[in-house]
């Protein structure tokens, strides 16, 4: 007698794969469109200035060679040699040494933080080889540090937001024994992910504004240029066209260099945390767009089906055979402590579950579940959490 086919898994598996592929494809298309729009805008803004600078330089070069009776070819050779010297840190204006201890420390800090300003680069073969291995370990450790920093930021914000919520309840007359009733509004409260994004954004803005005031005074930059440097540095873009702490000497030089390092460290941590939270909002938006697109198509057979709870202790042995009914919804249940149905998944609630779990548990002081730490790390948030939770889901009890 032929074996009966499992209809539930056969219909859910294609939906899970389709959702992942659709989300990935939509994000790739939106990023490509974003890049094209950015290229159009920057080309319109910067290309005329570039052409004007070329014309001005050609005119100045022609006037100089004519007035001083200098051979143009010889001058080009000299200018090329100066460009090579400039790459090695030799400028007309005296700058700080690039490779003394303090200069080398500044360089390795930009390497492991992935800022990479580019004003200092190794020129020896041994230095370049060492940089590959040094950066591999250093960048990985720093990314881990940023993720752990993000967890502590979430913990602090959760306590602060809970304290504010408790004060609000006391003002409205809810507190004491009343707050422990069955309809307790405090125990049912969850910190908002959007408030976290707002607080991190305000913190990053305050750090950038304070740092810009320092750079304006010490580097003789205008305030807008200082803000521009702060964003480029804090976001680890690191163009290198404007770099702080490069002069040979400053007033209160040691204090300024310490303040510069602290501002960059705090700014990078805050912006990294903000980017992680914004990425969750972007994923939520992608799910909302996909949900709207699916409204115009035939309804999925999985929709409306009761949520099937997994037996305790059961784990996936292969991530490729997960279904949307068992994987996405059950993952949301594990991470947020709530039952999340397929409809909730389509309504974009699962994308906030990872961050909301830590916010909620921290705010209420609940201990983390034991299975979250079985592989040695906490659930966390952001890109590190996605990988960690996926490894935890696919692990097998021995």
TrEMBL record:
Entry keyword annotation includes Membrane: yes
CC terms in the record's Gene Ontology section: monoatomic ion channel complex; plasma membrane
UniProt-listed InterPro entries: 2pore_dom_K_chnl (IPR003280), 2pore_dom_K_chnl_THIK (IPR005410), K_chnl_dom (IPR013099)
Protein name as catalogued: Potassium channel subfamily K member 13-like
Key words, A-Z: Cell membrane, Ion channel, Ion transport, Membrane, Metal-binding, Potassium, Potassium channel, Potassium transport, Transmembrane, Transmembrane helix, Transport, Voltage-gated channel
Membrane topology type: Multi-pass membrane protein
Matches recorded under PANTHER family: POTASSIUM CHANNEL SUBFAMILY K MEMBER 13-LIKE, POTASSIUM CHANNEL, SUBFAMILY K
Annotated TM spans: 24-45, 104-123, 129-150, 193-214, 226-243, 255-275
Native source organism of the sequence: Sinocyclocheilus rhinocerous
Cell location: Cell membrane
Family: Belongs to the two pore domain potassium channel (TC 1.A.1.8) family.
Catalytic activity: K(+)(in) = K(+)(out)
Encoding gene (name): LOC107706455
Gene3D superfamilies: 1.10.287.70
A GO MF label: outward rectifier potassium channel activity
Main location: membrane
Domain Potassium channel, chain residue ranges per copy: 96-153, 204-282
Gene Ontology biological process terms from the UniProt entry: stabilization of membrane potential
Protein's UniProt keywords contain GTP-binding: no
Superkingdom of the organism of origin: Eukaryota
């Amino acid at each position: 007698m032929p074996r009966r086919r499992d209809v539930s898994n056969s219909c859910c598996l294609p939906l899970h794969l389709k959702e992942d592929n659709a989300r990935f494809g939509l994000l790739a298309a939106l990023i490509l469109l974003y890049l094209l729009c950015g290229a159009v805008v920057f080309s319109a803004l910067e290309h005329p200035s570039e052409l004007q600078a070329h014309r001005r330089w050609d005119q100045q070069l022609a006037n100089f060679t004519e007035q001083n009776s200098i051979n143009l070819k010889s001058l080009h050779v000299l200018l090329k040699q100066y460009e090579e010297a400039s790459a090695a840190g030799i400028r007309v204006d005296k700058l700080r040494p690039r490779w003394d201890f303090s200069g080398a420390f500044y360089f390795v800090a930009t390497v492991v933080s992935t800022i990479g300003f580019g004003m200092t680069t190794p020129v020896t073969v041994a230095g370049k080889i060492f940089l590959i291995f040094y950066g591999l370990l250093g960048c990985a450790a720093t990314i881990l540090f940023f993720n752990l920093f993000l967890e502590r930021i979430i913990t602090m914000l959760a306590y602060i937001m809970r304290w504010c919520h408790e004060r609000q309840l006391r003002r409205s007359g809810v507190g004491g024994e009343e707050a422990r009733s069955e309809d307790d509004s405090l125990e049912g409260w969850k910190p908002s992910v959007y408030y976290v994004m707002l607080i991190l954004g305000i913190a990053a803005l305050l750090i950038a504004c304070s740092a810009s005031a320092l750079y304006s005074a010490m580097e003789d930059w205008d305030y807008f240029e200082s803000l521009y440097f702060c964003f480029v540095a804090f976001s680890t873009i690191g163009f290198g066209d404007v770099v702080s702490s490069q002069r040979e000497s400053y007033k209160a030089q040691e204090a300024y260099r310490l303040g510069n390092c602290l501002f960059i460290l705090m700014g990078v941590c805050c912006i990294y945390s903000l980017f992680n939270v914004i990425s969750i909002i972007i994923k939520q938006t992608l799910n909302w767009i996909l949900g709207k697109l699916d409204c115009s198509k035939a309804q999925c057979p999985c929709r409306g089906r009761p949520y099937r709870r997994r037996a305790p202790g059961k784990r996936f042995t292969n991530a490729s055979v997960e279904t949307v009914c068992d994987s996405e919804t059950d993952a949301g249940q594990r991470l947020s402590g709530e039952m999340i149905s397929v409809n909730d998944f389509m309504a974009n609630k699962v994308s906030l579950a990872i961050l909301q779990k830590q916010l909620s548990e921290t705010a209420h002081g609940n201990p983390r579940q034991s299975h979250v730490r079985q592989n040695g790390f906490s659930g966390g948030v952001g890109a590190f959490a996605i990988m960690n939770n996926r490894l935890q889901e696919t692990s097998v009890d021995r």
